[in-house]
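Support reply, case 0932

Customer input (verbatim):
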Amino acid sequence: MADLIISIIIVSTLGIIAFFILFNYVLQKSFHIDHVESNQTPKDFGFDYEDRLIETENDKKIQIWDLNPQKMAPVIIGVHGWANTSEKLLPVAKGLEDDFRIILLNTRNHGKSDDEKYSTLITYSEDLLSAIAYAKERTEHTQPIILLGHSMGGAASIFTASKDDQVKAVVSISTFASLNDIMLKEFHNRNVPGWLIQTLLSYVEFRLGGRLTDISPVTTINKINIPVLILHGANDPVVDMECSERIEKAVQSGKIKRIVLPNHDHSSLLKDENLSKHIKKFLSSAIV
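Our regenerated output:
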């Protein structure tokens, strides 16, 4: 009898260990990003810029491009999407440089920034807060700050705006509405068995220390009371245009404007010169 009990304990322990190994393997595959390098720099777009490394969480350093460092004007801090770098935002920045001080951020695992085990909306937000602190110091706290993000960067911008009252507006481009939906799609794309998905989502929430719903744009949009511009491509196959509608409809108070750009997908709208025109027009009335 004693041998049977010992065998059950051993098998159960091994099962628990195997279960957690499986969990961490799936999470590693889903949230780990092999370091993404930039193929272009601001110099390719004619910027006389400063390339800096600044401190962020966990004693890591992140790369920022201070595109027009001598300009004293409202500051736009731009952050890229998942597995991209802020080189994607350079065409947009070019259309905004005359009116704004522009700082582009490469989060951990991107550009010259340090590596991190996982990239999540939380790590994006931590890196954004570090960039905000840099911008405030460099402008002596005299300029309003606008957060501009693409895809995951847009979600992080909405989430982060509630953490600093010097952020006066948000521009969110091609952003998903629900983190749960994005993760479900990711798990399905990686052929994770259906019976395992909900348990994985619960485990992710345990690791994050909160519910995914609480940090999703459809929720966090109501934690800020500043102007928000939502931009989306009509033909986006990565994040459906319906997500921008859900974010807009979720707003209970505050000023939000939604613009859909026809004939564009998830990233092609970043190269459309009309994008920066929409942003400038919106910010001309949002920042007073």
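We compared this against your earlier run and they match. Two observations from our side: The longest strand covers residues 167-173. DSSP finds nine helices and eight strands in the chain. Please reopen the case if you see a mismatch on your end.
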